Amino acid sequence: MTEVASAPVVLRTPSVIGQLLGDLAITYREVPDHPGLDPARKVQAVLLDDTVGVLMVLFTQNHLLDLNRLADLIGRRMTAVSAERLERMLDKHGLTQLPGLPALINSPCLYEEQLLLQPALLISAGKPGLLLEVTQKDFKRLLNNASAGRFGEPLSEIKLDHTGDDGEAITRAVQAFTARRIQQRLEATIELPPLAESVRKIMRLRSDPDVTIDEITSVVETDPALAAQVMSWASSSYYASQSKIRSVEDAIVRVLGVDLVINLALSLSLGKSLGLPKDNPQSSTPYWQQSIYTAAVIEGLTRAMPREKRPEVGLTYLAGLLHNFGYLLLAHVFPPHFSLICRHLEVNPHVSHSLIEQHLLGISREQMGAWLMGFWGMPGELTVAVRFQHDPAYIGTDSDYPNLVCVALGLLRSRGIGHGDCAPLPDALFERLGVPRDKAEAVVGKVLEAEVMLREMVAQFGQP
């Protein structure tokens, strides 16, 4: 227990938890949660249900809960209880997190047998930031009426491919689920929709340094839905137009500018080419909200960079809008399995989506999205940004683009926006961008101050 011996205690155990452990004669030690704690000692608790009833499942945070293995083990296909139901259950006890204490919920319990290999374990106290350390002997007593089993996958066994050919990886993943079509070419196998002509026109305009207002206005006006979106953006309170917007040209010239209109139009058109999935993980950040918030933060971070090393603002903004495009592609390519990914994200909040996707499919959304960016001929900077957005150590070609996305996503996760663990971003990442950490935090704060107006834009993106 030496790793936590000197950590100062700043939080207190909720009375309901203290009383429960006292009644069971379980001794415990309060430990502030921090990233340096060994995940092999941290107990992850999740509540699952089906038509039979509720089951508490316990495993360590260096494992992924595999719902397929669990179904094979117990003969029941279960999913996470709804966020609303869990909140009601915890509210009765004045808690906000689920502790790994079966007696609290009074439901059957199943635990990963690897749990008991640890001499001491760390259990959530029911509030963020505080863990309770108990000995293996005492933890066994807590599991007196529980059953053991093997249903977890060690995270160390799930390998992400950072160097291989993404096209080949996609082919392998698709072939694993479509054995009858194993000889078909990749493009036919995954049945990608053709790139819409309006998108092609927008991409041509984007690559033309001499594009005129008339040209972009003409393209926008030929798509009534896109024209209505541009008018709505320009009229929104986020852009604080001083007068009424009367035309698309008016919106471009007086409010939005050519670069922003092209980027927004391109992102919206690409998103609609695949469509939003009907299934999503519980409590997930909606697709367009994640995209627009990320793009807004990246725009601020880019402008905060030293002028001499600052990349193209419009392209970094577009990288933010399209960073999660692989999510849409996964839903499009693997519809029978996308729901399974969602269910695993719900029961493994401590695991990155990339590891879950790699475990289930052999491919991640980042690989899929980056491959499609290249397949469709998008700028190389976007391909790199999508592919390496979760690698804080990336220093390859055009590294500023994925580094900016990485910072934006990490800072937004720390504010409760987005999925995944809130691991601290390394200082080296901020140093490479030339943006001090406190200045980057200030950028996020400024963006979130405009949250009401940003949500207005999100609603406009979600319109047909």
Automatic annotation (TrEMBL):
One GO MF term attached to the UniProt entry: aminoacyl-tRNA deacylase activity
Family annotation (Pfam families): HDOD (PF08668), tRNA_edit (PF04073)
Domain (HDOD): residue spans on this chain: 192-392
Lineage top rank: taxon: Bacteria
PANTHER family attached to this UniProt entry: PTHR33525, RIBONUCLEASE Y (PTHR33525:SF3)
Protein's name according to its UniProt entry: HD-like signal output (HDOD) domain, no enzymatic activity
Organism: Pseudomonas deceptionensis
Lineage start: Bacteria, Pseudomonadati, Pseudomonadota, Gammaproteobacteria, Pseudomonadales
